[in-house]
């Protein structure tokens, strides 16, 4: 894979096809199917929010897309070509796809200055050209101006928002086409979150940068994403344009996630049953044991309760323009209209 490779017009920049990541169980325990069949696409210049509660597999999926975890099935494609998991291929790939972690304090070495933290990627990849100018440009793009003022500072001398901007500058310094941001504002004060989200949107507008934003917060998705993919127990269960999914959610799980937002109004949906366990995926719809629609009798009334408990749903297609949902009840409701 070389930096000359670009997707054909209209083709996705990044795509997964039938992606599986399975971790062996300990001492004879069942294997954990952390990612259990995922088709996902990101177009050039697009921001996609990958949403779900803790344990749903979204971080493992992101790590597989980054090449940090090798899939046990399916493939990742970038620029139309399958990801090369050999060391040389991954090194070339990581110049084009960068990770932004949620905790800047944990991802910055406290012994390194801001300059060294941002320059690290240039040195690893033996990037030609003026290192000082590249670091200054990256810091400036990340909103730390004048950049020279920050060169010799250490992480403990910065605010939380400034540290996150340094992490973003470190991702930008190699000129990537895509960033994967794992809970990019979760550790920040509310007053700073909007600034970081505005920065990510500005980078998309200025540089054509694509982003996969991993979050449990549907409110964040509303503010930043073009499309949303809702994940539960290793699968995408609902996906589509952000306005469609968040104003007209079809899957009961998405409805439950939205119900706890302050602006939602009404009573929050309290999910029963056990939290998702990737080593014990149930038959039928993987959400059925916790589903408020099944528990309330609405699935029985729609004639799909048995299907919910016994009939597995297909993997959602990644290339569909219209909203998609993996739910027997939602499908029955569409048929009745």
**Low-pLDDT stretches:** none
Whole-number radius of gyration? 21 Å
Secondary structure: helix percent: 25-40%
The major β-sheet equals: 7 strands, mixed
What can you see in these coordinates?
The protein is of the alpha/beta class and 337 residues long. The chain has a domain at 14-247: P-loop containing nucleotide triphosphate hydrolases (Rossmann fold, 3-Layer(aba) Sandwich), CATH 3.40.50.300. Helix content is 36%, strand content 19%. The chain has helices spanning 58-66, 87-96, 104-107, 114-124, 131-141, 160-172, 190-207, 218-224, 242-247, 252-259, 292-296, 298-301, 305-310, 328-336, and strands spanning 14-23, 32-42, 47-51, 73-78, 81-82, 97-100, 178-182, 210-215, 227-232, 235-241, 324-325. The strands form 2 sheets. A 7-stranded mixed β-sheet has the order 6-7-8-3-9-10-11, sandwiched between helices. The chain has a 4-stranded antiparallel β-sheet with strand order 2-1-4-5, covered by helices on one side. A hairpin with an 8-residue loop joins strand 1 and strand 2. Helix 4 packs parallel to helix 6 (160-172) and helix 5 (131-141) packs across helix 6 (160-172). The longest helix has 18 residues, at 190-207. The protein is globular, with a radius of gyration of 21 Å.
Task: Please describe the topology of this protein.
Layout: E1 14-23, E2 32-42, E3 47-51, H1 58-66, E4 73-78, E5 81-82, H2 87-96, E6 97-100, H3 104-107, H4 114-124, H5 131-141, H6 160-172, E7 178-182, H7 190-207, E8 210-215, H8 218-224, E9 227-232, E10 235-241, H9 242-247, H10 252-259, H11 292-296, H12 298-301, H13 305-310, E11 324-325, H14 328-336
Parallel strand pairs: 3-8, 3-9, 6-7, 7-8
Antiparallel strand pairs: 1-2, 1-4, 4-5, 9-10, 10-11
Helix pairs in contact: 4-5, 4-6, 5-6, 6-7
């Amino acid at each position: 894979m070389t930096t000359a490779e670009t997707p054909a017009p209209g083709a996705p920049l990044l795509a997964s096809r039938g992606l599986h990541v399975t971790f062996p169980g300990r001492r004879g325990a069942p294997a954990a199917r952390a990612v259990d069949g995922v088709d996902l696409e990101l177009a050039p210049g697009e921001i996609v929010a990958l949403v779900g509660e803790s344990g749903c597999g979204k971080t493992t999926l992101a790590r597989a897309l980054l090449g940090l975890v090798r899939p046990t099935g399916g493939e990742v494609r970038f620029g139309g070509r399958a990801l090369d998991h050999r060391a040389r291929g991954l090194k070339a790939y990581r110049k084009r796809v960068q990770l932004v972690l949620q905790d800047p304090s944990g991802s910055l070495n406290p012994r390194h200055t801001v300059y060294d933290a941002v320059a690290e990627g240039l040195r690893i990849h033996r990037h030609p050209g003026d290192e000082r100018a590249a670091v200054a440009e990256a810091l400036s793009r990340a909103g730390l101006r004048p950049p020279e003022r920050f060169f010799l500072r250490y992480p403990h001398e910065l605010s939380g928002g400034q540290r996150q901007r340094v992490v973003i500058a470190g991702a930008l310094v190699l000129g990537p086409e895509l960033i994967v941001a794992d809970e990019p504002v979760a550790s920040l004060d509310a007053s700073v979150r909007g600034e970081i989200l505005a920065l990510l949107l500005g980078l998309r507008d200025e540089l054509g940068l694509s982003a996969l934003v991993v979050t449990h917060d549907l409110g964040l998705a509303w503010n930043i994403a073009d499309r949303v993919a809702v994940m539960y127990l290793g699968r995408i269960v609902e996906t589509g344009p952000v306005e469609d999914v968040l104003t007209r959610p079809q899957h009961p799980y998405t409805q439950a996630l939205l119900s706890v937002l302050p602006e939602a109004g009404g009573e929050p949906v309290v999910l029963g049953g056990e939290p998702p366990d990737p080593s014990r995926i149930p038959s039928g719809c993987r959400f059925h044991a916790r589903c408020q629609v099944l528990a309330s009798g609405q699935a029985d009334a729609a004639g799909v309760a048995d299907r919910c408990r016994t009939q597995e749903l297909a993997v959602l297609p990644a290339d569909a323009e219209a909203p998609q949902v993996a739910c027997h009840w939602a499908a029955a409701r569409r048929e009745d209209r």
